[in-house]
């Protein structure tokens, strides 16, 4: 039985097709880097930490199936595979970070291709294991911030499905729930891909954690009515001045600040990109059909102009604290993020 969202099994990468959830649980068996790239582009695989693990495994697939005689040949093929994966989605830094780690592992080891193949796979497994461990620690540290009776709003899906295991924002919620705190979750539907409606509600329901689904535009009303005590979201990239996460996150952060509601971000250190500021980040723009259509049904007039950014930028002044596997970074610690590029 599959224990994690992504697993290596006998030369294949096995993962859940997230576009089919919650109606069907369909497992994909991916056998090449191109197949992983396609699954990422079409969002069968999604969520920043999972993208990191998938990128690492994509390179491991290349190494595993290539019967290279020379070390140089293997390194060349890994470079090509890295380029294919880099072109899939531009915003989540975990994908680029994992590729960097695998390439460094391969290049820094002057071994024969046979041994290098093993090293590459071992490094990919290590990346996946570290993500699972980080999420459990994030959950443990973050649960301290959660009180009995809290109603916690989350956006998009930062659960087990977005990671190798357990989840970041949902990991915090899970630990608090397991500690016996009587909490409730408000999940935004997260237009246009509906990760909140389809995936977050599904995960929480499976874990028996009470969850209420709302439309994205209801957040202001619920805040005004004092129906939300905390916000916890994940992140696709944390730069020196901001958190980049699913489109709509910044709107929620502004509303939280206006209503004195704590706004927490839960993310592993593989999501930190402290060499850059928000100016350097490419915000992915996705195809118009995600907005003009619901399923195959057109809802907007033909030829209408569409702008569909998938992520937004929340300046750090809107963030109460960032929870990572090393602990909780409060506002006063953010200057350390700004001053350093070596936090990792
Ligand atoms: O477009 P997606 O579904 O890949 O976006 C996912 C998010 O924005 C998540 O909040 C983020 O990756 C953190 S997941 C732990």
Protein model, in words:
With 344 residues, the protein is α/β, with parallel strands linked by helices. The chain has two domains: 6-137, translation initiation factor eif-2b, domain 1 (Four Helix Bundle (Hemerythrin (Met), subunit A), Up-down Bundle); 145-339, 3-Layer(aba) Sandwich (Rossmann fold), CATH 3.40.50.10470. Helices cover 40% and strands 17% of the residues. It has eleven helices and 15 strands. The strands form four sheets. A seven-stranded mixed β-sheet has the order 6-5-4-7-10-14-15. A three-stranded antiparallel β-sheet has the order 1-2-3. Strand 1 (6-9) and strand 2 (12-16) form a beta hairpin. Helix 5 crosses helix 6 (169-178). It is globular and about 65 Å long. The two termini are 34 Å apart. The mean pLDDT is 96. The structure holds 5-S-methyl-1-O-phosphono-5-thio-D-ribulose. 5-S-methyl-1-O-phosphono-5-thio-D-ribulose binds at residues 46-49, 92, 156, 158, 162-163, 168, 195, 233-236, 245-246, 310.
Protein topology:
Elements: E1 6-9, E2 12-16, E3 27-30, H1 33-41, H2 48-65, H3 71-86, H4 93-107, H5 113-143, E4 151-154, H6 169-178, E5 184-188, H7 195-207, E6 211-214, H8 219-224, E7 230-233, E8 237-238, E9 242-246, H9 249-258, E10 263-266, H10 289-292, E11 293-294, E12 297-298, E13 311-315, E14 321-324, E15 327-330, H11 334-339
Parallel strand pairs: 4-5, 4-7, 5-6, 7-10, 10-14
Antiparallel strand pairs: 1-2, 2-3, 8-9, 9-13, 11-12, 14-15
Helix pairs in contact: 1-2, 2-3, 2-4, 2-5, 3-4, 4-5, 5-6
The chain binds 5-S-methyl-1-O-phosphono-5-thio-D-ribulose (MRU).
């Amino acid at each position: 039985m599959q224990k994690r969202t992504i697993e290596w099994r006998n030369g294949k990468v096995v993962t859940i097709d997230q576009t089919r959830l919650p109606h069907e649980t369909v497992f994909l068996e991916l056998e090449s880097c191109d197949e992983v790239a396609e699954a990422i582009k079409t969002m069968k695989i999604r969520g920043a930490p999972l993208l990191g693990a998938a990128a690492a495994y994509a390179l491991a697939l290349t190494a595993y199936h290539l019967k290279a005689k020379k070390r140089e040949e293997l390194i060349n093929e890994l470079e090509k595979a890295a380029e294919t994966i880099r072109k899939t989605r531009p915003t989540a830094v975990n994908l680029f970070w994992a590729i960097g780690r695998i390439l460094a592992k391969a290049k820094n080891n002057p071994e024969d291709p046979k041994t290098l193949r093993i090293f590459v796979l071992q490094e990919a497994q290590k990346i996946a294991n570290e993500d699972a461990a980080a999420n459990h620690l994030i959950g443990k540290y973050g649960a301290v911030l959660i009180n009995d009776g809290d109603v916690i709003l989350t956006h998009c899906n930062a659960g087990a499905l977005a990671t190798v295991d357990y989840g970041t924002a949902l990991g915090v919620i899970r630990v608090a729930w397991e500690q016996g705190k009587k909490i409730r979750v408000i999940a935004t539907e997260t237009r246009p891909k509906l990760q909140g409606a389809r995936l977050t509600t599904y995960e929480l329901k499976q874990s028996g954690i009470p969850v209420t689904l709302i439309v994205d535009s209801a957040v202001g009303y619920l805040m005004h009515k004092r129906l939300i005590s905390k916000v916890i979201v994940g992140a696709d990239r944390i730069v020196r001045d901001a958190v980049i996460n699913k489109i709509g996150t910044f709107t929620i952060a502004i509303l939280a600040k206006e209503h004195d509601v704590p706004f927490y971000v839960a993310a592993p250190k593989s999501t930190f990109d402290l060499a850059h500021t928000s100016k350097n980040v490419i915000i992915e723009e996705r195809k118009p059909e995600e907005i003009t259509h619901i399923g195959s049904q057109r809802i907007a007039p033909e030829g209408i102009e569409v702008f569909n950014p998938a992520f937004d930028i929340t300046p750090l002044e809107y963030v109460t604290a960032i929870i990572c596997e090393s602990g909780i970074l409060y506002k006063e610690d953010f200057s350390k993020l700004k001053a350093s590029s070596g936090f990792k």
